[in-house]
Design brief:
The protein is an alpha/beta fold. The protein contains 14 helices and 19 strands.
Length: 483
């Protein structure tokens, strides 16, 4: 599988050096005679070129970019770069995502590639503004910290365009439980480059039947059981969930997809899960912890938010239903599960937002960080349907960012919350995490309706509002900040 997160921005450094035909001084040139000869300017320029290249290798974020072989170009006081100089760039121009230049390169716009500069002076203000006016992408950064933030956004944009999502769909209708998912797949491709295979969800059944529960799947199940802090399922039931996971991954491989979503209520109504004793929850959790955006209920609006968050921060993402818990609430009857869910373990003195779903993850701290502890629970009253139980309120007041896209896929709402607690429930969607929302939980839910966003939220550790705003400017979506 070609993971979208693995792509990098190909940066081509280009050092331009103006070589004068002789020494003189004037309104834009001063300096002693010995520093104004063509020989000195050429020698000094090449020395600076080598030093600059070494500096780039030390300071650019190589997890986000590839530094291509640098190029050295010369031009004279005619201010025209000859075709023979541009010929140095042409063999690799088709691979270049971004040119990083040191000064003006008259005519580089002919290459029709984004251009960037790192400079504190006036030149990048003029150059970047000019290129933008004539329809090219152009960027300016004052220092390497700013430039690396730019590289992050450009790398995410390239990763998004490298994403192909397998959509297991009811196809005849929009998802039953998510009317606000992104429905215009053609526009998602035109706007972001996101490709898809949208296939009847029943097609997964033959892949499922072709997966045998062998020693390999039993080993995977044993490992998950042994590493859990607590288990409330059996190895056989867990193997059924892993069988579905491998069926999904086999189907993704066949269609060369690196992202996933599937309907839930429609799959449930088929009774195939009841017959084979599995739910898709563990598949989503395992996918996300393997750097694959994967969402429930064919909800492409929350999938968009999840993908942007994962690619931006390289952290795994929780998603779930945003439920209002009014101040003083103890009874969960408003969830429609009175007979199955216990009372809340605590009450709150103000309105809070509960996010619950059976798709928690263990790498919310980051893909390179230690995994969080987990338990294994079950979804159904019959005991099957394995899913993780992860405490996402390990730290009291843990800051999180949550959000989702609108149905058009053009706008993302984001809010900041702080954890107040987490509960594991015996069946159904669990865990449930309680959040204090900056601006108010009740008000946030109203904003979701007024903005036409819908319900599921993608949640990630940390306050990433500013980074998402910067990302939106580069990738091409609006960010609405709720506060």
């Amino acid at each position: 599988m070609k993971y979208a997160m693995d792509v990098k921005v190909n940066v081509k450094p280009v050092f331009s050096n103006m070589i004068h035909s002789d020494w003189w001084e004037g309104p834009c040139r001063v300096g002693p005679r010995e520093e104004g000869t063509p020989e000195y300017e050429r020698r000094a320029g090449k020395e600076q070129f080598n030093l600059w290249y070494e500096e780039l290798k030390e300071n650019l974020d190589l997890t986000r970019c590839n530094i291509m072989e640098p190029a050295y170009l010369e031009f004279g006081e005619s201010f025209v770069v000859k075709d023979s100089e541009f010929d140095k760039l042409m063999p690799e121009n088709h691979l270049v995502d971004l040119y990083l230049i040191t000064y003006r390169i008259p005519g580089i716009e002919r290459l029709k590639k984004p251009v960037s500069m790192i400079d504190l002076g006036p030149t990048p203000l003029d150059v970047a503004s000019y290129y933008r006016q004539i329809g090219l992408d152009a960027y300016m950064a004052h220092d390497y910290e700013e430039y690396n933030r730019l590289l992050t956004c450009l790398q995410v944009r390239k990763a998004v365009a490298s994403t192909k999502v397998l959509i297991l769909s009811n196809t005849e209708q929009i998802p039953t439980s998510v009317n606000t998912g992104c429905g215009d797949l053609v526009d998602l491709y035109k706007r972001y480059g996101i490709r898809n295979n949208r296939i009847d969800f029943r097609q997964i059944f033959k892949y499922f039947e072709n997966v045998q529960i062998d020693e390999g799947i039993h080993r995977e199940a044993k490992a998950l059981l042994e590493n859990a802090d607590k288990t409330d399922t059996t190895e056989d039931f867990l193997c059924n969930d892993l069988r579905y996971f491998h069926a999904v991954r086999n189907m993704m491989e066949e269609y060369e997809c690196n992202a996933f979503t599937t309907p839930c209520k429609e799959l449930c109504a088929s009774r195939f899960p009841q017959e084979h004793k599995f739910v898709p929850c563990m598949t989503h959790s395992l996918n996300k912890d393997d750097r694959i955006p994967s969402t429930c209920e064919e909800d492409l609006a929350v999938w968009m938010a999840m993908m942007m968050m994962m690619y931006l921060t390289r952290q795994s993402v929780f998603m779930g239903n945003p439920v209002l818990i009014p101040a003083g609430t103890k009874d969960l009857g408003h969830l429609g599960m009175q007979k199955l869910l216990p009372e809340l373990g605590r009450t709150f003195d103000h309105d809070v937002l509960e996010i619950h779903h059976a798709v928690p993850v263990r790498k919310m701290r980051g893909y390179g960080q230690p995994e969080q502890n987990y338990e294994l629970g079950h979804f159904t009253t019959q005991g099957w349907g394995t899913h993780y139980q992860v405490n996402m309120a390990e730290e009291d007041g843990q800051t999180v960012t949550m959000g989702r896209f609108n149905r058009d896929g053009t706008k993302m709402i984001v809010a900041v919350g702080h954890t107040l607690g987490c509960e594991f429930r015996p069946v159904y969607c669990s865990p449930a995490v309680f959040y204090d929302i900056e601006g108010g939980a009740r008000e946030f839910r109203h904003a979701l309706v007024k903005g036409g966003y819908g319900h599921h939220q993608a949640i990630i550790y940390g306050n990433h509002v500013k980074e998402l705003q910067e990302l939106g400017e580069i990738v091409g979506f609006e960010v609405e900040t709720f506060h």
